[in-house]
Write a structure and sequence with these properties.
The protein contains two helices and six strands. By secondary structure, it is of the alpha+beta class. The strands form two sheets. Strands 1-4-5 form a three-stranded antiparallel beta sheet. It starts with 14 loop residues before the first helix and ends with a strand.
């Protein structure tokens, strides 16, 4: 069997041909290394991008949670204020209702005070009824006021008449025509009085 030209070793190859073959192999190795480095760099940049994306998503979720928490706190504060306002309005309505009931009883209370002043309520069933009525109203915060010798106060007294007096140094209640009525600090009707003015 004879060797074909392809099977025969190339005895005619020169050293420069060998160098070229070695350079090609080295160049091919450099290209492969560069490809690997490129793949690794791309993978690293993708990982960095994924981490950045995860960080952005986490930050966005934290911001949304903070906004929802702030909304919840605002709603809770509004609800607390609403409850306080409702309770305050309910108490005010109760006070107004009590005041109206007592105002409607003022003529009867004036008659009781006048009868007591004239000695008509010393004893008997009517005296007992009058006392019980006043005690019941007192538990609701009602009280009569206005007495001889009190310093005149236009906020709570109504002056029916004024006359000079050498016996006082400040305007003073000299006589009570009708007592005043109040619930706490709220005046239902001012005391109607005659005032002594200093000379």
């Amino acid at each position: 069997m004879t060797d074909t030209p392809e099977d025969k070793p190339n005895d005619d190859a020169t050293p420069s041909d060998d160098a070229e073959n070695n350079d090609a192999s080295a160049h091919h190795g450099d290209d492969a290394l560069a490809d690997v480095e490129s793949i690794l760099n791309e993978a690293g940049s993708n990982l960095d991008a994924d981490q950045d994306g995860a960080g952005d998503a986490l930050t966005k979720a934290a911001n949304m949670a903070a906004e929802h928490l702030e909304d919840l706190r605002r709603l809770q504060a509004e609800f607390v204020n609403y409850r306080k306002r409702v309770d305050r309005d309910r108490a005010a309505l109760g006070d107004q209702a009590q005041a109206k009931v007592i105002e409607s009883l003022i003529p009867a209370l004036d008659d009781i005070a006048a009868a007591r002043e004239h000695g008509d309520l010393t004893d008997g069933p009517f005296a007992s009824i009058a006392t019980k009525l006043e005690e019941s109203l007192g538990r609701l915060g009602w009280e009569p006021y206005g007495a001889i010798g009190d310093e005149f106060d236009p906020q709570i007294h109504e002056a029916l008449m004024s006359q000079p007096s050498a016996e006082v140094t400040v305007p003073t209640v000299q006589q009570v025509a009708q007592p005043g009525h109040r619930i706490g600090d709220k005046v239902l009707r001012p005391a109607r009085v005659i005032v002594a003015q200093p000379e």
